[in-house]
Design a protein that fits this description.
GO molecular function, one term: kinase activity
Strand content: 5-15%
Low-confidence stretches: none
Distance between the termini: 45 Å
Keywords: Kinase, Transferase
Oligomer: single chain
CATH class of the largest domain: Alpha Beta
Order of helices and strands: HEEEHEEHHHEEEEHHHHHH
CATH superfamily of the largest domain: Aminoglycoside phosphotransferase (APH), C-terminal lobe
InterPro entries: ACAD10-like, ACAD10_11_N, Aminoglycoside_PTrfase, Kinase-like_dom_sf
Pfam families: APH
Largest sheet: 5 strands, antiparallel
Shape: globular
Length: 339
């Protein structure tokens, strides 16, 4: 197990801070995640899940497990399904980095958006649940749940463009003219702030959802690391962007898939259903939001690639595989600007 967990130190700390906890702890690292290492903890008092910051030198504002803990704790009483938060440890001396422990939610997780081994009817219902859950996130009353200060005010896209451009430059390993052109286009075509200030997940896609073991219901939304207060269309466009990618283990898209035959939704149906749920007449200039999501994903995956090359990625081999998609995201982002 890469990045091993000091289960003895962890057990001592949890015994003092988590009511009802009894050690010892057996930890099993989940595979596939590229940011904050995540572990299942099996103990005599039950099962838990731990997420921690990775070791090593980290980029400013990255891997903020404290923010993940806060937003999920705040959402506990809303219609958005999240795991129950147990305890946060901000002291890096306990296991080497900050971490939090949450409920272990039983459910099914899918990397393949074509949803193999699921019936066409259930596939359609699961995409519908995904749509309803996204609308629910964007309808959260941020004042009522104490998240009004969870992100700064001002134009969300200008803020995000600045942040992720800096992150991209800090981790850049190759010259990519398409990425440079995409950054320039986004800056020159920034939409005016329309006043929508909502909770956004920041990485909303199928593989960050946990479905109930025996139904299309979403049991928990996972991986809130990029969540903030911002503009909701970025989350919506991120779903459409992901579906445009190749239907491979790394691409995790639906390009070339006969969606109708499988019971999967087309892009327009997903967008229309979302607008209906939120009472929107439609979305203008959707190409900007789609191009923005390609840019941000390219920047994220460049960071994944750099961590893999530096030897501190959660899953180095997969990190290099995903990092190879940076040029494609940049190229497709430019293509989106012309549609």
């Amino acid at each position: 197990m890469s990045q091993p967990l000091d289960t003895d130190a962890l057990s001592l700390w949890l015994a003092a801070h988590l009511p009802g906890f009894r050690g010892p702890v057996t930890a099993t690292k989940f595979s596939g995640g590229q940011s904050n290492p995540t572990y299942r903890l099996d103990t005599p008092s039950g099962a838990y899940v731990l997420r921690r910051k990775p070791p090593g030198v980290l980029l400013k504002s990255a891997h903020a497990v404290e923010r993940e803990f806060r937003v999920q704790q705040a959402l506990g009483a809303t219609d958005v399904p999240v795991a129950r938060m147990h305890v946060l440890c901000e002291d890096p001396d306990v296991i080497g980095s900050a971490f939090y422990v949450m409920q272990a939610v039983a459910g099914r997780n899918f990397d393949d958006p074509a949803l193999p081994d699921v019936s066409p009817g259930d596939r359609s219902a699961m995409i519908g649940a995904m749509n309803a859950c996204l609308a629910a996130i964007h309808e959260v009353d941020i004042d009522a749940v104490g998240l009004s200060d969870f992100g700064p005010s001002g134009n969300y896209y200008a803020r995000q463009l600045d942040r992720w451009t800096k992150q991209y430059r800090a981790t850049q390993t190759d010259d990519l003219p398409d990425m440079d052109a995409l950054i320039g286009w986004l800056g020159a075509n920034m939409p005016a702030d329309d006043g929508q200030r909502r909770l956004v997940h920041g990485d909303y896609r199928l593989d960050n959802l946990l479905f109930a073991p025996d139904s299309p219901r979403i049991a928990a939304v996972l991986d809130w690391e990029l969540s903030t207060i911002g503009h909701p269309y970025a989350d919506l466009a991120a779903v459409i962007m992901q579906w445009s990618m190749p239907h491979t283990a790394e691409g995790r898209g639906l390009a070339g898939v006969d969606r109708a035959a499988l019971g999967l939704w087309e892009d327009a149906r997903f967008i229309d259903a979302y607008c209906a749920r939120r009472g929107l007449a439609g979305i203008e200039r959707f190409e900007f939001y789609l191009a923005f999501c390609h840019f941000r994903m390219a920047a994220i995956l460049q960071g994944v690639r750099k961590r893999a090359l530096d030897g501190n990625a959660s899953d180095p081999e997969r990190g290099l595989q995903l990092g190879a998609y940076v040029p494609q995201f940049a190229r497709q982002g430019l293509e989106a600007t012309r549609k």
